[in-house]
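Protocol step 6 of 9: fold each sequence in the batch and record its C-alpha cells directly after the sequence line. For illustration, a two-sequence batch is reproduced in full.

Sequence one:
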Amino acid sequence: MATEVKVPVLGESVTEATVGQWLKKPGDAVKADEPIVSLETDKVAIEVPSPVAGVLGDLLVKEGDTVNVGTVIATVAEGASAAAKPAASKAEAAPAPVKAEAPAAAPAPAAPAEAGNASDPVTLSPAVRRIVLEHGLDPSRITGTGKDGRLTKDDVMNAVAAGTAVAATSSSAAPAAAPAAASGAPARTQERVKMTRLRQTVAKRLKEAQNNAALLTTFNDVDMTAIIEARAKYKDLFEKKHGVRLGFMGFFVKAACMALKDIPGVNAQIEGDEIVYNDFVDVSVAVSAPNGLVVPVIRNAETMSIAEIEKTIGDFGKRAKEGTLSMADMAGGTFTISNGGVFGSLMSTPIINPPQSGVLGLHRIEERPVVKEGQIVARPMMYLALSYDHRMVDGREAVTFLVAIKNAIEDPTRLLIDL
C-alpha cells in the first residue's frame, strides 16, 4: 500500500514553496518521521518527514519546482515487505547487464558506482555544490555537521580555511580540462544556479525597502574597553551559571532596548497614513544558517536579562544550523541588529527590513588611536551604523539613539540602573 507525501501547512499566509533538495532517493528505506525532502519558503527551509515507515517510491516533483500546500510530491510503500521487494529487484537486475556484456569482468561496474557515491552530488544543496565546484573539492572527504551529517557551506569553507579539504580527482574533470590544455588557454567555466526562494524574497524585499523608504545611515563609534573587560572577568562564571557563553550581542540588545524606549520612533512603523508605535521590543537578530543568513526574532526583549537574551540567541544559532527554525520564529520583529563584525566588516550601511524603521549594524573591533584625557592611546573601537527610514525618524533622533547605545556600552553600569 502506498502512502502519499503531501506538502504540509507552511505557516500563516504561506501557500507555496520550492523543492530545495531531495534527501532520499526512490527505493531508499525510510523511517516514520524521517526527513525525505527539504522545501524552501520565503523565510526558512522546512524538512518534510515520511508519514510512515517503508520505501520511498516515485518522486512526483523535481528539485527547483514550485509546489502548493497539499500537493502530493511523493509516495511511500509501507511495511517491511515493501522494503524487501525493491532490494530484491535491484539485486536481480544488477547482474543482468554484466552477463550480457562481459561475464568475466563482473567486478568492473563497482568502480564507477563507488566513485559516484564518493562525490555524492545528490546529497549536496545547490549552494554547497557551487562552493565545492568552485574550489574543485571532493565533498566525501569533508565532515558534515548539518542534520544527518549533511554538508553545510560553513563545513566546506572551514575545511578550505584549515587546509584539510581534498581536491577532487574524479574523471569528470578531465573533459573540461582537455580543451583548455589543448589550446593553452585558461579554463573559463560558468555555472547557472537558480536563485533559492529565500534569496529571491530577500532580493525583492531589500529592493522594495530602497524604493519605498527614505533610507539614511548615521554612524558613531564606541570604545569597547569596558565591555571586553567585563566579559573577560565574568565569562567563566556566566557560562557555569547559565550554561551559555557571554557574548557582546546580549549587551547590545539590552542597550538597544533602553535606547528604543527613549526614541520610540525607531521602534515604530508606518501603516498607510498612520504611525504605529510599539510598547514592546521584538528584536530581529541575523544568524548564520547553511542556506544563508536568517533573522529570527527575540520576543519582548525589553523584559529579558542579558543571560536570557544570550540563551535565546544561542538557541536560534543552534536551530539555524540544524535547519529547524520555524516560520513563527522569523515572523514579526520591530527592530533589527545585524553583526557584520563576525565576518570582518569594518563599516556598512545596512538596509532596513520593512515595515521596520531601523536597523543597527555592528562591525569588527580593532585597536585605533583615540585621544583620552589629552593623551593618544590605543583603544578597541567599533563603528556603529544606524540605517533608518527618514520618513519616520529625524536625524536628531537617530544621533540621539546611537549616542545612547554608545554611552551604555562604554559604561555598562547604565544597563543596570536603566540610565
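Sequence two, same batch, same settings:
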Amino acid sequence: MADQRASIRVQENKLSHYLTVLRQFNRDVRLYLFASLLFGFSLFGGIYSLLLNLYLLRLGYGPKFVGVFNATGALSFAIFSLPAIALANRIGSRRTMIAGTLVALIGYATLSQIELLPVAMRSTFALITYSFGLFGVALYVVNGSPFLMSIVTPGQRSHVFSLQAASLPLAGFAGNLIGGFLPGLIASVFDLNPASPTPFRHALLISSMLMIPAALFLTSTREPAIEPEEESTPSGGQRPLGLILIVSFVSLLHVAGEGSVRTFFNVYMDQALGASTSLIGAVVAAGQLLAVPVALAVPLLSRWIGNRRILIVGTVLSALVLIPLGSFPYWTAAGMCYMAIMGFAGVRRPAFVVFTQELVPRNWRTAMSGTAAMMAGLGYSGIALGGGYIITLYGYNYLFLTGSGLTACGGLIFWLYFRKPRGEFVANVSADPY
C-alpha cells in the first residue's frame, strides 16, 4: 500500500512538472503555436486537406490525376526546401516563415478558384498554383523547427514539439469536422448543387484566408537572440553532413506509408467505399483527435524509452497497421486503421524532430530540417505519383502494402544506423528533469 501511494506521488510530481514546463513557455512560443493551430485547422490536415482531392474529383478528375497533382505538390515542396535554407541563412528563420505564410495564402487562395477557368486551362493552372502554395509551406515548415529550438530552453524541447504535434491534429480535428459539413452548408445557404464543385471552391477559399491571422501571429514574434555556438562539430568526430544524409534517406522512406494514407484516404473512402463527405470528415477528424493525447505523451515516453526507440516502435507499428487498411473494404475498418496511423504519426513526428535537431550543432539545424523536409517531400511525391498508377492498375490494397513496405525499410535502416549512440551534439542535449 505504501509503495502504491509512493508511485502515485511520483506520477503526480511528473504531471505537475509537465504542466509547469508548459506554463513557462514564453510569448513567442505561444504566438508560434497559435499560428500552428491555424495551419492545422486550414492546411495541414484540416479543411483544405480534406476537401482538395474531393474538389478535384468533382471537377471530373480521377485517381491518376489526383496522384500526379499531389506528387507535383510534394515534389515542389522538396525542391523549394533548399531555397528555404538559403533564404533563412540570409534573412533569418522568423522572416522566412512570415514570407512563407503569405506565399501559401496567395497560392492556395488562387488554387481554389480553378473552377472559374476554361476546362483546357484547369490542369496546368492547378499544378502551378499548388506548387506556388507549397513553396510557401516549405518556407514555413523548414524554418519552424530551428525557430522553436532557438526560443526554448533544452529542457523544454520535447514538451514544445510534442505540444505542437498535438496542436496540429487537434486543429485538424476541428477543421475536418467543419470541413465535412461546410460544402453542404454553403450549398444550402446559396442554393447550390451540393454535388457540384462550387461549394467546395468557396470552402477552400475560406480555408486559405485563415493564413492572414497566422501571418499576423508570426509577425508579432521577436527575432531570436543569437547565441554563441558551444562546439563546432558533433561529438565522436562525426561530420554533420553525414548525419544529415542518413537522416534524410530515412525520412524519404518512412513517410511513404503515411503519405499514401494522407494522399488517397479520402479518395479511397469516396470512390471505393462510397462514403459521404460528412462521414469522411468525421473519420478523418477522429483520427486527428486520437493523435492529440499520444503526442502530448511524447515527453514522458521520451524519458522512459528515449526518442530513438519511439521512432523505431512508431515506424514499425505504422507499417503494420497499413496491411489491413486496404484488405478489408469497409469504412469502419478503414477508419480504425486511419486513426491508428495518425496516432503513431503523432508520436513519431515530435520525437523525430527533437532527435534529429539535437544531432547537429546549432548552425546546422536549418540544413538538417531543410534536407529532411526535402527528402520527405520526395517520398510523398513518389508515393503520390506511383500511387495513382498503382490504384488504376492493381487497386488500393497494393498501394497501402507498398507504403507499408517502404516505411518498414526506413525503420530498419534507422535502427541499424542508430542502434548505438553516434554523433549526438552533447552541448545541445540536456537531461530531462523527470
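Proceed to step 7 once all outputs are recorded. Observation for sequence two: The radius of gyration is 21 Å.
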